[in-house]
Amino acid sequence: MKIRIIYVFVSILAICIFGLFLGCPEVLDNDKDKGNIPVIPDNYDEGNNPITPDNPVTEPPVTNPPAKTYTVTFINDDNIFSTITAVNSGSKIYNLLEPSKNGYNFEGWYKEESYINLWDFDNDIITSDIKLYAKWGPPIIVLGTTLAEKLQWLDLNVKNNSNYIIEVTAGYEEIAKNLTYSNIRNVTIQIIGIGDIERIISGGCTLGNGVTLILDNKITLLGKEIDSFLVRVNSGGTFIMNTGAKIICNNRYNRNKPSYSSGGVYVTENGQFMLNGGIIEGNLPSNFYESVEVNNYGTFIINNGTIIKGDGICIQKGNFTMNNGNIEQVTVISGTFNLLDGTVNGVRVETRGKFIMNDGNVSGGVYLHGGDFTMNNGNIINNDFLAGVMIGDINIDGSFTMNGGFIGNNTHGGVEGRNGTFIMRGGTISNNTKYGSGSAGAGVSISKGGGFIMEGGTISNNTSNIAAVSGDGGTAYGGGVYVNGTFTMNGGIIKNNSIIKTGPYRGTAYGGGVYVNGTFIMNDGNISNNSTDGNTNYGSGVYVDGTLTIKGGIIEENNGDGIYFTGTTLTMNGGLIRGNTGRGIKMVSGSFFMRDGTITGNNGGISWSSNKVFDKSGGIIYGYLEGDSNSNVVKNNSGIIQNENGHAILLISNKITKRKETNSGLLDNLSFIGTLNPPIIDGKWDY
């Protein structure tokens, strides 16, 4: 019985173990030589997930190793010209835009710095990082016997980024050629004379886009009496003249067909003309413009050279920069003339023009016919026809700003403004003269309601000469400054200017330093040591017919009255009037208001002759106190003290006379209202 029970138990256990073996998802073999190998049923994937229509079997992606890439660097004259990165191994590279270099021809990219192997863009491939080097060769000598043959050779053989030399051996040749080439860029053509004598080329040419023409030593372009310029530089073209080259004798004058353009060189549409040397001479325009004309945003640069015996240069919607050289005249109609150095015999600036002077010399004056002129440095000198600078004209204004430089030795004045505005921030206006009866402002003369603002600089040693030529005598106004309009002085110095008289006839002088018919506002600055030397003199320092407001500054040591006033209102809110050999202030009309400031050390403080208003409510007017150097003291021509003449104040009206001999200090208010009848008098007058 027990044996049967054991048999049954063993049989059931065997069946269970066998069933467990059949249902197990994986069975491991313990054979160490075979390793651990998973056994996966057919209906399961490698992740032991059952395979169903919603979970099909997917193959893992096949990834290729990344391609090897390299960098190509292009070197031009030891500098990196361009770089191509991420070039696949075995690939070709495209041909770059070729570099350019003045005076050389590009001969290709080479694999070595020693230029042994030329890179072949059609066949060579990239297998590593590489540097390619630009090789340069000499200019190409153009083939042919005559100039015409050589130009024809160029038509057939010209290439991009190339430099060519045309050698001229004949004494005389003719040219009438358009140097324009389709789809060609960056071409330089240099014409040079061979031999010891001058080579003359009669006729002219037109330069197209991408073409540079260099006129070199011993080459002369000779003009004709035809309605055409010698050289026309169109958009993208460049014309260069070097030392030894000439453009001469082209006369565009044609009565039946006026062209209104230049006789020598015409630059237009973003073209460029560079004068490095040589001469442009005797080229006459047709009725209006110049030997060289720059139009439609063209550019003209002078580094050296000469333009003479013609009408100079005309700028219309262009830019002209002068670094050196000598030219006859410049007219700026619309555009900018920048003078950095050199000499110009006259500049005219029209309404839309601009002239900037950073250095150099202008010997024939500057005429602003509505344009703008900024002077930072340089000299405007020795003009004997007009003033150094003329601003505006009848119904035409102009604008002149002077930041520095020198305007001097001009025989018709330094600056004359017939209309417009003059702002002086620095520089010097000196040693200019005006001659004849009625002369006004040898240093600066602003008339017809114009304005002068002085913020700095010096106006000195200018002389107006009365020089009367008849028994009626003559007059002169303002040895230093004459303004018929508004003068605002914020700074600067006006000194040592004078009005003199020559000849046997009488002369009257008004304002040795400053003459203003209008409004004068003095905020700061110095007016000193000016003089008048006529038979009759009014205001050696300042003469004003209008209104005068003094807020600051100094009027001192003038040879006569510091201020002579014959206007409506003089207001003194500050400033210092001292040491003048005449009265500090002499008024013959108008009202006087003093709120602050000091009047000291003059031959009398104030002489006031009017029936208007005198009101001192601040400031100091010194009287006479023996031994006090601040005293205003009235003396005669022999130096004898004249008491009872108002050392501090002499007030005279047709109704009363009042005097102040002693100091009138800050708290000494004095007033006289002559507009009332009877007048009202207040304050501590001496008598």
Explain what you see.
This protein is mainly β and 687 residues long. Among the domains are: 1-57, no CATH class; 81-137, Sandwich (Immunoglobulin-like), CATH 2.60.40. Helices cover 5% and strands 43% of the residues. It has two helices and 64 strands. A hairpin with a 4-residue loop joins strand 61 (649-652) and strand 62.
Distinct helical segment count:
2
Task: Using the CA coordinates, give the radius of gyration.
Answer: 46 Å
Q: Tell me the total number of β-strands.
A: 64
Q: How many strands, which pairing sense, and closed or not: the largest β-sheet?
A: 52 strands, mixed
Strand content: 35-45%
* Gross geometry: elongated
> First CA to last CA: what distance?
170 Å
Q: How is the topology of this model organized?
A:
Elements: H1 2-23, E1 69-76, E2 79-88, E3 105-110, E4 130-137, E5 140-141, H2 147-157, E6 162-168, E7 172-179, E8 187-193, E9 199-207, E10 211-215, E11 219-222, E12 231-233, E13 238-241, E14 246-248, E15 265-267, E16 272-275, E17 279-281, E18 292-295, E19 299-302, E20 306-308, E21 313-322, E22 326-327, E23 330-339, E24 343-344, E25 347-357, E26 361-362, E27 366-369, E28 372-375, E29 379-381, E30 389-391, E31 399-402, E32 406-408, E33 415-417, E34 421-424, E35 428-430, E36 433-435, E37 439-440, E38 444-446, E39 451-454, E40 458-460, E41 463-465, E42 474-477, E43 481-483, E44 486-489, E45 493-495, E46 498-500, E47 507-510, E48 514-522, E49 526-528, E50 531-532, E51 536-538, E52 542-550, E53 554-556, E54 563-565, E55 569-578, E56 585-587, E57 591-600, E58 606-609, E59 613-616, E60 620-621, E61 649-652, E62 657-660, E63 670-673, E64 680-682
